[in-house]
Amino acid sequence: MSIAEAYDMPVARAPLVPPSPPRAPDDMTVFGRMKAIRESPIGSWGQRAYEEDIVQGRFFGRSTFILNTPDAIKHVLVDNYENYTRTPAGIRVLRPILGEGLLIAEGRAWKYQRRTLAPAFTPRAVMPLVRHMLAATDETVAKLRAASNVPVDLREAMQRMALEIAGRTMFSFGMDRHGAALRDFVMEYGERLARPHFLDLLLPLSWPSPQDIARRRFRKRWTAFVGMLMAERRAAGKQEGAPARDLFDLMGEARDPETGEAFTDEQLGDQVATMILAGHETTATALFWALYLLALDPATQEQVASEVQTATVDGAHDIERLRFTRAVIDETMRLYPPAFLIARAAIGPDTIAGLPVKKKDIILIAPWLLHRHEKLWRDPNAFIPSRFMTATPPDRFAYLPFGVGARVCIGAHFALVEATLALAKMIGAFRVTLVGKDPVMPIGVVTTQPDRSPMFAITPR
After folding, report:
1. What is the domain partition of the chain in residue ranges?
2. How would you class 53 by CB atoms within 10 Å of its CB: exposed for 0-12, middle for 13-18, buried for 19 or more?
3. Residue 182: phi, psi to the nearest 5?
4. Residue 244: its pLDDT value, please?
5. What residues in the chain have per-residue pLDDT under 70?
6. Which of 32, 31, 37, 69 is nearest to 53 (CA)?
7. How far apart are CA 138 and CA 129, in angstroms?
8. Binding residues for heme, per the UniProt record (predicted)?
């Protein structure tokens, strides 16, 4: 049974189809595609990429393969994942802000980090952190309620809230004093350094591009800032014999189960940067898109509000009673996947779906394309949360909001709990509408971001 057949259910009304960027011409020139990639990779894909199983191409002498079939994706990300590494361009963009943390580490370094960190992100370990999520969300709701008579920028509000949650769950202290500086770092990097330039794509990783020089200067300032946060948390201390109270405790106490080694201070700093940035930015963006979709679709918004009114929202156990709210989060991440592109370079030759792959060929698995592929989804561009409430879930390799396989996002459970509870609190407290009618377009810059921050009107329920 196909995914489309599994979702063959009656729909009482025409579903919302949110605005999306126009698709590129399939015959776009290399330099035209380069310009589009520079602006937003999402706008560089043509109609073929939404229809065909595998799209082959050439890019500066290398073969490229866009994979849109679950079997081919499973082969690359699970069955033979050790033959595929991050592309040089991906490393250039991520390493200055994430260092050698879990997200971009490879080989033995990645295996060591993964097995050392895994105990800190189990559902049991996440449970004590939920109080931090709820406290920060309740404070955000209270501030918004006090300002509910004027239009609000919910994107900024969700960024502040997610950052506060990240700070409290990481360090057990709020981000009142450091939040503005951290947001400035994130905005500076996203606006100036996160978009790959022509030379980033062309030069070998060992040859620094002009952007790399600026990225190195940024990294020096950024690592000093993260070190300051760690020093402040250490100064607060931890009561002898007390259980871990935050992620910093859990990661500091983590030991490699095979060697007994702890993280060095530099390694711990890279993990802190990875968890704060990957956690707060992706969750804030997902919550913004969920609120935007619900503002465009008042009937679905009322379904969420009705569910929230019949459930208490005070802990991770409440997720089971928030099935429709969770489905809205799932469908939001289908339409606006936090990571819109997974790019890999072949270390050695391989065969994918009968096609020969050479060393250094580029494999592209784009959740943006995969989640909107016309062979895999019924009404792929429509907002239909109920598709995630059927007895037959989507194919594991057709829905990749957190990746899949050995390198699946270690914080997926944490993020889903946070996003579901936060959305429930927001819609339980407010009716959300858009002030203007201009569409908000997604762009791909590390994450799937909006091209602008629209204003919302919020009315207390």
Report:
1. 3-460
2. middle
3. -65, -45
4. 66
5. 1-12, 238-244, 312, 314-318
6. 69
7. 15
8. 409
3-state secondary structure of 444: strand
CA 245 to chain CA centroid, nearest Å? 25
Longest dimension (CA), the chain: 65
- CB neighbourhood size of 10 (10 A): 4
Residue 60 annotated as part of some ligand binding site: no
355: left (phi over 0), alpha (psi -120 to 50) or beta: beta
- As a whole number of angstroms, the distance between CA 280 and CA 419 comes to 10
Residues 89, 72: Cα–Cα separation, whole Å: 23
DSSP state of 86: E
CATH superfamily of 3-460: Cytochrome P450 (1.10.630.10)
Cβ-count burial of 94 within 10 angstroms (0-12 exposed, 13-18 middle, 19+ buried)? Answer: buried
* Residue 133 CB contacts under 8 Å (≥ 6 apart), including other chains: 165, 169, 417, 418, 421, 422
Picking from 149, 146, 150, 128, the residue whose alpha carbon sits closest to that of residue 138 is 146
Look at residues 452, 425, 448 and name the one whose alpha carbon lies nearest to residue 436.
Answer: 452
**DSSP states of 129-154:** GHHHHHHHHHHHHHHHHHTTTS-B-H
Token look-up 């992706």 returns 282
**Phi–psi pair at 264, nearest 5 degrees:** -70, 170
CB 274 within 8 A of CB 282: no
Who's near 431: CB < 8 A, 6+ residues apart? Answer: 301, 305, 458, 459, 461
Cα 140 to its chain centre, rounded Å, is: 22
C-alpha–C-alpha distance, residues 401 and 447, integer Å: 11
Q: How many Å apart are CA 383 and CA 296, to the nearest integer?
A: 10
Residues 262, 251 contacting (CB under 8 angstroms): no
User: In terms of DSSP bridges, do strands 456-460 and 362-365 run parallel, antiparallel, or are they unpaired?
Assistant: unpaired
Burial track 110-142 (b if 16+ CB lie within 10 A, e otherwise)? bebbeebbeebbeeebbeebbebbbebbeebbe
pLDDT value, residue 132: 87
